[in-house]
Amino acid sequence: MQPAIKMALRAARQNSDFLKDQQARLEADSKAPDALVRTVHAIEHRIHERTEEQLRRSYKDHWIAPAGDVEAGDWAQSWHVFPILGERNFARGLPEFATALLQKINDRPENLVVLCPLTGEEYAFSRGYGAVLNSQRIRARSTQQLAQTLISCNLFNRRSSGEDSGLWLDVAGSLVREGADLQYNGCSVLDMARVAGGYLDAAVLATDLRHEQVMASLISQEAGAVGGDLRGNPLGRKAGELVIANNLLFREILQQAQPYRQRMTGA
Predict the structure, then answer these.
(1) Spatial CB neighbours of 230, under 8 Å, sequence gap ≥ 6
(2) Are strands 63-64 and 77-85 parallel, antiparallel or unpaired?
């Protein structure tokens, strides 16, 4: 295990324990929505402070980005802290949330840990060294066909910017007609990690969040999977969705999206 991964895991485990305690203290039903949001943000701020303090002891010359910021700027070595991924689930008392730390070198993702506090899942991805779950090596499933697959998909939540409001429902429907079972737990990064762990066969996710694209590139590569968008392009800044699956299943998903690509250009 790489030294940076060991350090990130130590910090993330402390954050995980803190989040379990804080979620147990939340009283979502008794708080007004704005008060609950302020409470969650205060928890995130505290986690970032704790993590920054711990990282600076070992990495004095590394930049610690603001919470949730994945951009490294001109810094050659940087750390990026994501105190709570799946904030709504956390605030509602649901178990499907995670905390994550990402290290970048020359603005390229090198090491990533993703922990789910309430399930005990501890994922680690290190460039060139593969992916592990709770210290055991993992790889994406070798499923070859869409029939009877379990896919993380939130396309049904995506709204088209044009008049074609049914586009993403049609794409999702095409996957279902081929036998895929679609589900989404409200935490995209956790679902991507679960593809790497073999719990899910693939992820087909609408997202405009840069950190999800960055994490997806490292997760897919180190789990022996392929990452791209529904148009077949590599993951990048302009992608409005991401797909992670093994090579054969990735092709099957793109084939189902093929009839809708012209409509996607105006979405």
Answers:
(1) 171, 204, 241, 243, 253, 254, 257, 260, 261, 264
(2) parallel
Report the C-alpha gap between 33 and 51 in whole angstroms: 27
Predicted pLDDT of residue 52: 96
Supply 58's token pair. Answer: 């070992």
Which residues neighbour 130 within 8 Å (Cβ) at sequence distance 6 or greater? 137, 139, 222, 223
Side-chain-side CA neighbours of 58 within 13 Å: the count stands at 14
Alpha helix stretches (DSSP H) within the chain: 3-25, 33-58, 87-92, 167-177, 188-196, 210-222, 247-257, 261-264
C-alpha–C-alpha distance, residues 82 and 192, integer Å: 15
Place 265 in a pLDDT band, splitting at 50, 70 and 90.
confident
> Which pLDDT score is estimated for 267?
60
- Amino acid 219 reads I
What are phi and psi for residue 48, nearest 5 degrees? -65, -40
Question: 162 to each of 81, 102, 256, 267, how far by Cα in Å?
Answer: 35, 35, 21, 5
User: Which of 2-13 are b and which e, b meaning 16 or more Cβ less than 10 Å from the residue's Cβ?
Assistant: eebbebbbebbe
Conformational region of residue 187, where left means phi above 0, alpha means psi within -120 to 50, and beta covers everything else:
beta
Encoded tokens for 249: 């299943």
Question: What is the pTM for the complete model shown?
Answer: 0.94
Q: How many CA atoms lie within 13 A of 255 on its CB side?
A: 11
Main-chain phi, psi angles of 95, to 5 degrees: -80, -10
What's the pLDDT at 1? 66
**Structural tokens at position 172:** 């999702």
